[in-house]
Amino acid sequence: MENQKNKEIIVGIVSFLAIALLFIGIILGKGMKVSTNDKLLKIRFPNSGGIQVSEPVVVNGVKRGSVIGVKNDNSSVLVTIELDNYNDIKIDAKAKITLLEITGGKKIEIFPGIEKEKFSLKNEMIGITPPDIAELVSLVGEVSGDAITLVRRLDTIAAAGTELFADGKFVQDLKYSANNASELATNVNLFFNDNKLKLNQTLNNLDILTKNLKNAIDKHEPSVGRILNDVEFALKDARILLTNADSTIVDANKLVSNLNMITNEIKDGNGLVNKLIYDKDLNQKLDSTFIYLSDLIFMIKNYGVNVNVRLGSRP
User: Fold this and answer.
1) Is residue 118's pLDDT more than 50?
2) How far is 252 from 246, CA to CA, in rounded Å?
3) pTM of the predicted model, to two decimals?
4) Computed from CA positions of residues 179, 181, 185, 190, in that sequence, does the dihedral angle turn out positive or negative?
5) Residue 56: phi, psi to the nearest 5?
């Protein structure tokens, strides 16, 4: 009975070890490792690109880990990987899904970056998914119709070009144009070679003229400033003179208006001037008055004035 029990215990232990070895073999065969989340790197791709769990992860072409998980997340794909170490992964690191072999399989290629700051595992790395062979084949199928049309157009263009060059006149004209261009280039070179010295002298003279002009401006700049100030003062005086001239013209216009008014009064027979000139009675009265006044002044001058003045009482 005891032997039977020992055998059962041994069979149980062997079965447990076999199951454990089978589990470990499956894990090792799939390339999976048991790790905590703080030791995993998350990379976000626009799509999975055919990557699967246990696919290798390489850094600069050297295998450093494997894919732990692939899942859809917020209209993109979040891939979780584990590396042997993260010391050389910088903050500007990039990831890309590429072909593992030409026959099939995928891998994640990580470019570690060159910045000094290390990548934090709390952040997500941004990855890109280049088109694979299937997508390229699909794209070629989509553009095949346009490619056929393009080939036909190229064939038409080639035929037109052949026909064009088959025309002897066109070829002759083309040769003539090429000869003219060659002669023109030769003449230009000869011109520059023959006049190189003169051109250099002209450039030197322009340089000297520019320097002299600059020196003259620097030398006479204060005088030019004073002249400009004097011109400004003269303009101010001219404005004042024009203002006074305007006032004088206004007064002259008033005087002319008065003269016109007097002239009109004389013409119409109204006014004092008309009476002084044309009224005979007034003229006679004025003459008599002036004669009496002259006699009075003569008598005063010769005989004086006898004034009888009494102050303080009535006569």
Assistant:
1) yes
2) 10
3) 0.37
4) positive
5) -75, 155
